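Question: does this match?
>
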Amino acid sequence: MMACVNPDGTLTSSAKALLIAIQDQALTPEDISKKIGQPLFKVRSSLRDMKSGGFVEAQGDEFIISEGAKKLLARSQ
């Protein structure tokens, strides 16, 4: 199981915060780190997990939320 998803299939609080940060605009890992108050190494690690899980998509140096993750986020709010 990925670090961004709880055993019950819901998003972890840090994953939810990250997705909320990029739901309206693409951001770099540095910008995400500042916006959500998480250390950059943690944000980069989460982004790797979330990219391999299909939650985020890379656009150059920036990341955006995937359509599937938007639906998951909407259900979890």
About this structure: The longest strand covers residues 56-59. The domain at 13-76 is CATH 1.10.10.10 (Arc Repressor Mutant, subunit A). The beta strands are 56-59, 62-65.
